[in-house]
Amino acid sequence: MSEPDDAAWHAAAGAPPSDDGFPDRDPGLPFEYSDGAPALGDFPGPEPGDVQPAAPAYTAPVTDPSVAASSSPALRALRGRDPVPAPLTSHGPATVLAMCNQKGGVGKTTSTINLGASLAEYGRRVLMVDLDPQGALSAGLGIAADRLDHTIYNLMLGPSTAMTDVLVPTGIEGVDLIPANIDLSAAEVQLINEVGREHTLARALRPVLHAYDYVLIDCQPSLGLLTVNALACAQGVIIPLAAEFFSLRGVALLVDTISKVRERINPDLSVQGVLVTMYDGRTVHAREVVAMLHQRFGDQVYDTIIARTVKFPETTVAGEPITTYAPTSPAAQAYRALAREVIAR
After folding, report:
1. Helices and strands of the chain, counted as H and E runs
2. Alpha-carbon 313 to chain mean position
3. Burial 86-105 (b: 16+ CB within 10 A, else e)
4. Could you give the strand order of the β-sheet that contains 126-131, starting from the edge strand earlier in sequence?
């Protein structure tokens, strides 16, 4: 079978090909499925008569098959890909990560909350920044942002607003929040006439970067000026992608935007990783999407895969991360594994 090239990937994603700065991947990488079913399309599957070894529900393609990626923390540990983070003796300066995808409903906010909580479990100080006028991050942490007098909007556009006016402690030890509400929807219009408008968020966050190890920015589902502000001050971008074909649409545009920001505004910006969310390993469709992501992004796809679970909507109502709501659940363990990957990278 022939491997899909970039043109085929872009066609599936609904966008024209572009030079996004990502290296070409080896087309001969193996995929294994526990049920022995071949992948859809032109992805390689087992040949007739092949004896398939026992394998987890999903084994990702990597250059060295001996250290193949896996959504199983135990298997990653055996292969040396799941190191335990070393304790810190001091904090800062912070690594700024933007959780970005212009498509909504792919798990950006859920991943921001649970990744931040998991990083805090490993002794990291985390600042979460809600950069979405819908205020989902604030609500997910149990903060009634609509009742607050000062939010990220005031910090970015109010010269007299201090960081201490907007910082809100969460119920998670080691995690603070800069909340947002509907006021932020006016920010893009007001920023148009500002000098250095792309760096407004960076200027606002600069005074506290020394106090944290990670700053996680929950971006709104668009590629507007607020998202560009997040990309302008970030060292890395985490792209959450639901394991469905609709999530692939527009990814090429997002990668192109990241590339342009890197070239014109922030040369330190890079894609830290692609996070697969809402994964259902029982479906060939989900495995096909994951295979396509590995074909396109290679090792930039995190080993950790976030599976679907009814626990996530429950945690939103409870206003706490899944690591405290259901600390022994597979989903909580998955986000802890993701935190270990983020620290290791």
Report:
1. 15, 8
2. 18
3. eeeeeeeebbbbbbbbbbee
4. 168-169, 175-178, 126-131, 214-219, 95-99, 236-242, 270-279, 301-307
**What would the two tokens of residue 185 be?**
């929807």
Q: How many C-beta neighbours within 10 Å does residue 42 have?
A: 12
Which structure tokens are listed for 227? 């998202």
What are the phi and psi torsion angles at 51 (to 5°)?
A: -90, 115
CA 64 – CA 259 distance, rounded (Å)? 28
Answer left, alpha or beta for residue 259, where phi above 0 means left and psi between -120 and 50 means alpha. Answer: alpha
Q: How does DSSP classify residue 236?
A: E
CB neighbour list of residue 337: distance below 8 Å, 6 or more residues apart: 73, 76, 82, 303, 304
At 66, the amino acid letter reads S
Q: How many CA atoms lie within 13 A of 168 on its CB side?
A: 25
Q: Residue 291: which of 76, 32, 37 has the closest Cα?
A: 32
- pLDDT tens digits, one per residue of 172-190: 999 999 999 999 999 989 9
Amino acid identity for residue 227 in this structure: T
Give the burial class of 334: count Cβ atoms within 10 A of its Cβ; 0-12 exposed, 13-18 middle, 19 or more buried: buried
User: How do residues 275-294 score in pLDDT, each as one tens digit?
Assistant: 999 998 888 988 898 988 98
Going by pLDDT thresholds of 50, 70 and 90, the confidence category of residue 317 is confident
Helix or strand run (H / E) with residue 278: strand 270-279
What's the pTM value of the predicted model, to 2 decimals?
0.77
What is the residue whose two structure tokens read 């999903």? 58
Q: Give residue 313's pLDDT.
A: 85
Q: How many CA atoms lie within 13 A of 148 on its CB side?
A: 25
**Inter-residue contact 145 to 96 (CB < 8 Å):** no
